Each structure stands twice: as structure tokens, then as C-alpha cells.
Amino acid sequence: MPKAKKVLFRRSAFLVSYWNDAELIFENYATGKGAIAAPIAAELLSFFSRWRPTEALFRHLPQYSPSSLRAAIRELVRHSLLQRSDRKRHPLEQAMPAWKDWNPAAGFFHFTGRDLPFEADLLRMGRYMEGLTHEKAMPVPVKHYARAAQTLLPPPREEGEFSRVLTSRRTWRRFADGKLKLADLATLLGLTWGVRAWVAVPPLGRFAVKTSPSGGALHPIEAYLVARDVEGISPGIYHYDASRHRLELLRRGMTRDRMSDYVIGQRWFSEAAAFVFMTAEFTRTQWKYRYPRAYRVVLTEAGHLCQTFCLVATWLGLAPFCTMAMADSKIDRDLGIDGVREGVLYVAGVGKRPAGVDWKTASLPIDPTGKKRRLRG
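The structure corresponding to this sequence follows.
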């Protein structure tokens, strides 16, 4: 009978530790797990900087009993701070080397911000907002330098279509029934994410030109359409081919319940005709900008594109919205992406604008009982 292979242990390469008041916290930002631990945990993790057996730790720390050290190792493994040689690594840990130039700063921020809970119950949300006002008044949304010299400016020019569209942009949470026109969807996708031209830059290759700026003209943001009620398109998930202005079917079928799950129970958004998931192909930006600050560039580009989407939708007389409350892992899984080399960043959506109501009324979500809720606070 062959002898069993000895189990070895090694520290995960994706750990961050920090003090939170009196508590020392260790987190694995790839797996999203962590634990509060005593400073001795740092000694154990440091010892397992390479694959080692438990017996080696016993010799290193003879002042502790083997049973207590085994218990500590079990806890560190349970919280994914230590890896075992006889177990597969977490998929995100396997893919994480792609972020080597951005870690730990950008990786810690990005991966610990995934799959966070969101309160979708309107009554509890209203109570929470009201409670905030009792703690402290809401910050004023503008800033003034009262003692600075003042120069009165002429009023901004507001004539013409551009200023009308810009000043009309709003976030909508109610939508009219009926299918979104295919021509409107094509305009939204094409003017927001479509490649407008190609520029040759020898010896690097061709760079895409779009309606929004991109750091290094690398355009890491991809668009995935979730169609529920679009003219001429079967419900499902599609990838938008920005260079050929085409939709590529990835998954058939889509329900309101599934759409609601994607935006963590914000059921009012699931009444929209379509969502667009904005993902980032991080490797495009990481190829050139090999420092963590470049992560900001990717986030900013998603913001550029979302504003363009909302303005185009407003110009078309539609009802756009955007949200960052989303089920990251569920979306990544349904798109077939790994969440590391490519991951979802932002959700935008659009529907038909409801007739006969002003924006302030139509911006209020409707709870599952069918009643509009006015959020106080």
C-alpha cells in the first residue's frame, strides 16, 4: 500500500492585515474571507511563507503544544489564510497573478467590495435614512469660499438640443409596458460602446476610437446586454461586439426575478426592458499601466460610458438608470467570466418612459405590494 503523501501548508499570497481599534484583522482579498486574530497569527503566517509540514512549526515554536498549533493551523486554513497542499486553490486565487502589478492596493479594494449586501426593503431603507438625519444633518452638496473674491458669471447657454438633453437626464425607477425598439437599442449600444474609427499606431497596432475617453486608448470596458422586452430579440444575455456592431447570444431566457437577483432585490429595476452589464477586461489596462493607481482609470471609464448611455437614452425619450448594487459573482458566472481577468463593474438599464407622470413621481420605486414609497430623510 503506497504511503500517504504528507500534507503541507503555505500562506496565501493575497493577505492584508490591519488594526481596527483593538482588533487585529487578517483578510484574504481573493477569497473574501478573513478573521480577527492575535499577533501570534502573523508569526505563524510568516513561518509558512513556503510549503511546510506541521512538524516544522512544532520545532519552530516549541513553547506551544502541538495540539494548540494544530488548532491554530485549522483555523487559518478555515479562513483561507493558509493553503493546504492536498486541496485545490480557490478559483480567484488561481487567477490572481494577472493582478500582480496592482496588488495589494487595488486588489484589496476591488475584491473586498464584491458581493456586498444591499437593503432592498423600502420601509427599512426609509427608516435607515431617517435615522441618519438624527445622527447628523445631510452634507450640503455644494461648497462655497465665503471670504474669496467673487466673480459673477454670465448664465450658461442652454439653447439647442444638447443642453436640453443634458439638463433632462434623470434616473428612472418606473417604466412603461411595451417593447423597447430595436433601433433605439442599436443607437444606445452604438453611440455608447461602438467603435467609431481605428487609428494605426506602429509598431503597437490599431487603437479604437469611441465616444468616451479611455486611458491609453485601451478601452477595457465591455458591454453585455440582458434583454427581457426588446423588439426583435429573444430574451437572454448577449455580448455586444463593439467593432462589428453585433449582438452575440450567450444565454437564452430571462425573467424579472433573475433581473431582480442581479441588482440585489431592487425589484423596481427589473421592470426595465433591458440591462447592460459593464465589465472590465482588466488585462488591457494592466498591460500598459503596471501600478495600482490605474485601477482608478478603469472605474472612471465605466463612469464616462454610463453617463453617455444615460444621455443617449434621454435623447431618445427613454427612461435610463444605473446602479452599483449588484450581485457580482452571480453576474460573472452567468456571463461566463472569471471575475479576475474580467469582472463586472456597473449595471445600467433602460425602459420605455411612463406617460402622464413627471419624473419626480416616476423616480419613486414601487414596492412588491404595488404601492409607491416616499423615502424620508
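The chain is about 35% helix and 20% strand.
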